[in-house]
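notes to self, project folder thing:

trying the whole complex as one job this time. last attempt i did each chain seperately and stitching them together was a nightmare. two parts in total, labels are on each line so i dont mix them up again. if this works i'll redo the older ones the same way
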Amino acid sequence: MSNSKLYKGSLTTIILKLLNEHDKMYGYEITQKVKELTKGELKITEGALYPALHKLEAEGLLDVEVAKVDNRLRKYYKLTETGTKETVNKLEELADYIKTMQALVNPKLA
Amino acid sequence: MKLTESQIQELYAFTRQHFVEHYDLQTELVDHLANDIETQWQKESKVSFEDAKNRAFKKFGIFGFMDAIEQKGKAMNKRYRGYLWTELKKWFEMPQIIATIALFLMFYVAFSTVYTAALALVFYVLISGWCIYKSIQLNKQFRQRKEVSNKKWMLEEMIFKQAGSTMFVFMSQLFNVYQIPERFGENASFLVLFSLAFTALTLVNYISLEVIPSKAEKLLNEAYPEFSL
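result (full assembly):
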């Protein structure tokens, strides 16, 4: 997915969080947004993004919408109600993880 | 600079060359490649379409579109199983449950006789004969649909072509059906299990080969907002 394996487990959380902040997004937009927010530090590869999006869609966390943009069709993803709830859980999980890691690697700050 | 219509069509052909058979996934990948190419042109306007396309494709990694194809297949299978399950549950609610119980009782009574093996074979032949007939019919329908639209949708293929897969599991059991000893009809728990198995197979085959295909348009429109575009 990215320049570091450590980010790998957080891909779904990143996608959910982004969709939580934006009403709807398409695949390419997600990769660009992550690049922009992390100033190029994290690059979601296309080979990992679409499998993750399709998995989340199958799990009922995402819904799709299609619109004609320029001369092609664009598929937008947005959170379902379950997806919104799951985002909260995933973010809590991630925060706990960061806290635990902080306690391990830098006990003074924890 | 924006991509032209013919370049979009070239991208569709490119995804097909890279084993993306279904229009739903092709469309998503075409838009992605197109966005990437247009972004490249904003930075370097002299890059050729071919070069920009290859650069965009490289970003998918050494497996290209394979991961996306695989995951999409899994996701669609999950969706299809969901439909199957929803329909199956209905047969355990009023009023369909009456038909389910009647079906079970019919198998139970038939298998309780001394002709368990012979009747099992008759039912087996009847059910699989119907399944083969329906599968051929659905396959034909699928080909006609494809000819009209010139597009192949993953879920459509599952509904019309993979529907018979439960039948093949069923058919592969012919040997076992043939091997049933006559006295098995006296074993009550065997009878219940055997009748349940036949009831379940009849229902699953009926749902996958009749009920779901009859709802194809509705399900496809639900899964693909672009289906009717």
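what i see at first glance: The beta strands of chain A are 25-26, 62-69, 72-79.
need to look closer tmrw
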